[in-house]
Design a protein that fits this description.
The chain is of the alpha+beta class and 199 residues long. The protein is built from 6 helices and 8 strands; from the N terminus they run E-H-H-E-E-E-E-H-E-E-E-H-H-H. Strands 1-8-7-6-5-4 form a 6-stranded mixed beta sheet. A two-stranded antiparallel sheet has the order 2-3. Strand 6 and strand 7 form a beta hairpin.
């Protein structure tokens, strides 16, 4: 069962979308702002049909690879978004796509997967990361609560990203993973993303 993220701190501490060049945090902000409405009864409603492939949405089949199914295996239609090389992804905002290199690094690792119920409402929203070209990491797949999506919807993007800054401990962990790595000229921080550079 995937852990549910209910608060900004839980999202930050999950490591989803971190560090650069990963795009997951900007993807999640876009999704909360531009893909989800809350109706009068409190249901999460898609703002457009996911079946049309808009923004690169496409069916997600929740394949079982080595008994590592990333989501609960309920029989509901599932859709995935976030593949920056998918048809339609060029319509995603620039702030989601700007670090994408199309090379084999982590700039295209993050995804959002949604389940739709019979009434067409979002039954579940998940953030996930690829382990390789096909598979997802079960231990790095998290359900995002409606409450957290509503919190994100209420923030400006810069405010959201500021609150997602890794803690001092997390920044040390990044450094330990790649000791001695110094940012190249192209990786040097800009004002809006210096916090997510591997130090």
């Amino acid at each position: 069962m995937s852990m549910t993220l209910n608060e900004l701190a839980q999202l930050r501490d999950s490591g989803f979308g971190q560090p650069c060049p990963r795009h997951g945090l900007n993807l999640l902000y876009w999704f909360a702002k531009d893909c989800v409405d809350i109706d009068i009864d409190g249901h999460m409603v898609p703002k457009f049909s996911l079946k049309r492939g808009t923004y690169g949405f496409h069916p997600f089949y929740n394949r079982i690879d080595n008994n590592n199914t990333p989501l609960p295996n309920q029989n509901l239609p599932k859709y995935e978004v976030g593949n920056l090389s998918a048809p339609g992804a060029k319509k995603l905002p620039l702030h989601v796509r700007k670090k994408y290199t199309s090379r084999c690094n982590d700039s295209n690792k993050d995804r959002i997967i949604v389940c739709l119920n019979d009434d067409g409402y979002f039954d579940g929203v998940y953030v996930a990361e690829h382990t390789d070209q096909m598979g997802f990491s079960r231990s790095h797949t998290y359900r995002v609560s409606q409450g957290l999506l509503e919190i994100i919807k209420g923030l400006e993007r810069e405010e959201f990203l500021q609150q997602m800054k890794p803690t001092h401990h997390q920044r040390q962990s990044y450094h330990e993973v790649q000791p001695g790595v110094k940012p190249t000229h192209s990786e040097r921080p800009s004002e809006d993303d210096s916090w997510c550079i591997i130090l």
